[in-house]
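Final report, closing paragraph on structural work. Over the funding period we assembled a curated collection of sequence-structure pairs, and we close with a single example.
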Amino acid sequence: MQSKICGVKDSETLNFLINYKYPPELIGFICNYPKSKRFVDINSLQKLLKVGNQKSRFVSVLVKPDEFTLNEMQKLNFDYFQIYDCTPDEIKLIKKKYNKKIISAITVETKQDILKYKEYENCSDIILFDSKGYEKSLEFDHTLMDNVPVNVNRMIAGNIQHDDNLDKFMKICNYIDISGGVETSGLKDISKVKIFLDNVKKLND
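Its predicted structure, as stored:
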């Protein structure tokens, strides 16, 4: 099981993550969605990302990005683009032009939503199954993941908590993506982040 801490926007949290003994595989930044309380503007991103990412990879989280935004993200220290609300054809063009690994995000409410993964398989390195809530961290019915074969590189997000029993995710995904579940009063809480990352380590041991 691998982990992603998403919605990082301050250097204290970032430095903790990249230097922790069990760092997350992926660290996400909300780059073009101002509706989110976790949004980070381009000037702040430039300062924030002036760090070596050690063992973690940095993810630019983008909602239907335009070309200007993609060009700006290309200049920064990102390994992945995580993209919402783009068609498979648009994803293919982005992947080819910017030469980034792609996390295609599918928002899920029904079985039909889950099955959209088939359209994105060939243009994505990871497929993220998220709730319809976007920044609101809602939950979807994880039993729907039974419809996704194990050969798909699957990431799960949506109302996952820092102290959840992670065993329940082992059969349905390769990555756990957590954001609000490691926050207190809307800010990343290092003590919750530590509990979550330690639990991922225990799960893998």
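DSSP finds seven helices and ten strands in the chain. The domain at 2-204 is CATH 3.20.20.70 (TIM Barrel). We thank the funder for supporting this effort.
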